[in-house]
Design a protein that fits this description.
alpha+beta; globular; about 325 residues; 8 helices; 7-stranded antiparallel sheet
C-alpha cells in the first residue's frame, strides 16, 4: 500500500468528507500516513504512565456516545507494550461508562497533561474487564497539537470519592452556569459502526477549549459551540458527519463537579450566526437528550490557570 492509501485507511469516509469540504484532502493524505499509527510509540507509552487522569469515550448499544473521566495515582494508566493500555480505575457510580464497558467494546482514550499542553490519543477495543479497571487493545495512536489547552496542573488527592451521577430532567441554573463559565470541555463521538466493536470505525474523544463563555446556551436549551481551526484531522466532525450524536463532559475545576450530557449535534458551516463568532470556522449546535450530574466527583486538585495563547485569534462574544 502506498502512503496515500495508508492515509485513506487512517481516516474513515466521514473524516475524509469533512476534510474535502474544508479543502485539506491532499494535505491530510500526507499527514495521516505519517502521524496515525497502529501502536503506541515508546514516548506515548511513557506519557500515559505520568498522568493522574485520562478521558474515556464510550458508546452505548444504541449508538449514543458518552464522555467520561477516570483518575488515579500516576501510573494507574500504564502501557505494558505497544498495543496494551491498562486503566486501573473505575468511574463514579451512575457514569454511562460502566454500562458501556464490556470485552470487545470500542473505547477512545485521551491522555492530557494540561500544564504542559501535551495530549496523546489511543483508540481500540476493551480486551479485559474486572473490578479494578479495564484493558484496551490499542489499534490507533497519535498525538495532537497544543492549541486551545488551558495550562493548569492536576494533582491526585484522594483514593476514594463517594459520588454518583444522577439523571436530571434538564439544565439546572447551576449546570447552565458551569457551561457558560467553562473554558474547556470534552466531546465523545462515534462512527455508526462503533457499537459493533470495530476500532477502525472512529470512536473518539476530543478536547475543546476557548475563552470562558465560548459555549453558549440558546433559548431552547441547546448548546452553541464555535469550532476553531485545528489540526484538520476532523475526528469529531467526521463522526458527526455520519452519526450526529455526541457525549459532552464539563468539569468544575474548583468543586470537582462533573456534568455529562448525551446529545444530538448539527453543524453550521455558514450563516449570520456563524459570522458573529470571530475566529469560528463552524458552529456546533448540541441538543441534550440526557443530562447527568455528579457533585464533587473528581479526586483532583487543580493549580492556577494560564489561558492558551492561541485564544488571541478567537475573539470574544
Amino acid at each position: 500500500m502506498d502512503r496515500t492509501g495508508e492515509a485513506r485507511a487512517a481516516f474513515h469516509a466521514g473524516e475524509r468528507a469533512v476534510q474535502a469540504r474544508a479543502g485539506v484532502s491532499e494535505r491530510m493524505a500526507r499527514v495521516g500516513a505519517r502521524t496515525i499509527r497502529q501502536s503506541m510509540s515508546e514516548q506515548h507509552r511513557q506519557f500515559f504512565g505520568m498522568l493522574p487522569f485520562v478521558l474515556i469515550g464510550s458508546v452505548s448499544e444504541t449508538g449514543q456516545p458518552w464522555a467520561s473521566i477516570v483518575a488515579g495515582v500516576p501510573g494507574f494508566a500504564s502501557a505494558t507494550d505497544a498495543h496494551t493500555l491498562r486503566i486501573r480505575s473505575r468511574p463514579s457510580a451512575g457514569d454511562a461508562l460502566l454500562d458501556n464497558l464490556s470485552v470487545g467494546a470500542p473505547v477512545a482514550v485521551l491522555g492530557l497533561q494540561p500544564h504542559t499542553r501535551r495530549r496523546n490519543r489511543a483508540n481500540g477495543l476493551v480486551s479485559e474487564l474486572d473490578e479494578r479497571g479495564f484493558t484496551v487493545r490499542v489499534a490507533q495512536s497519535f498525538g495532537n497539537c497544543p492549541k486551545y489547552i488551558q495550562a493548569r496542573e492536576a494533582t491526585y488527592c484522594s483514593s476514594r470519592v463517594e459520588a454518583r451521577f444522577e439523571k436530571v430532567p434538564g439544565l439546572s441554573s447551576a449546570a447552565a452556569q458551569l457551561i457558560r463559565a467553562a473554558d474547556t470541555f470534552f466531546i465523545a463521538t462515534a462512527h455508526p459502526g462503533a457499537p459493533h466493536g470495530s476500532a477502525a470505525h472512529g470512536m473518539d474523544i476530543s478536547h475543546r477549549g476557548g475563552r470562558p463563555g465560548f459555549v453558549g446556551l440558546d433559548e431552547s436549551g441547546s448548546l452553541v459551540v464555535p469550532d476553531f481551526v485545528g489540526n484538520f484531522f476532523f475526528n469529531t466532525l467526521g463522526n458527526i458527519e455520519l452519526h450526529p450524536a455526541a457525549g459532552l463532559l464539563f468539569i468544575d475545576f474548583g468543586s470537582g463537579d462533573l456534568l455529562s450530557i448525551a446529545a444530538t449535534v448539527t453543524v453550521d458551516w455558514a450563516g449570520v450566526e456563524l459570522a458573529a463568532f470571530s475566529g469560528a470556522e463552524r458552529l456546533l449546535r448540541v441538543t441534550p437528550s440526557e443530562i447527568r450530574l455528579a457533585r464533587a466527583a473528581l479526586p483532583l486538585q487543580w493549580g492556577p490557570v494560564t489561558m492558551s495563547p492561541h485564544l488571541e485569534g478567537t475573539g470574544s462574544w
